[in-house]
Amino acid sequence: TEIYTLSLHDALPIWMGQANTLQALGNLSRRRDELETAHDFYDRALTIFQSIGDRIGQANSLKALGEIYAIIQQWSDALEYYEQSLTIARTIQYRLGVAGSLLEMGVVRFELGDQQGGLRDVTEAHSLYEAIGEKRWAGRAQQRIEELQGRLSSN
To answer: What's the sign of the alpha-carbon dihedral 129, 131, 133, 135?
Structure first.
């Protein structure tokens, strides 16, 4: 019997495929409200993305972990993950990732009592979505701006 070994270059698509599958399973679990399972899948995907140097995958996994914490209203933990995601996205000029992190961070900042910072983040996300032609997401960001402004004016 011959034993085949894969170089890192040859194995990379396998690892990327596994990480992307874990990310997708996390998304499915989150939609099914299986948050602990989703967290586990995202965390495992993050580990693989880190080990292979996939910065977009890292940013997306960190944002997804932040979303889990936001769902359960652990705002400080959510903010920490969003900030890590934002840092990576900005470093690699991943504008969609920057906008996504800012959109979620804005809501979290608002919940933590930084209403102006929250509105600033969501407004920046809206501008970025428009600049990159993401009309659907720009619309969602606009809705979020209006929601936060409404909450501000009712206080």
So the answer is: positive
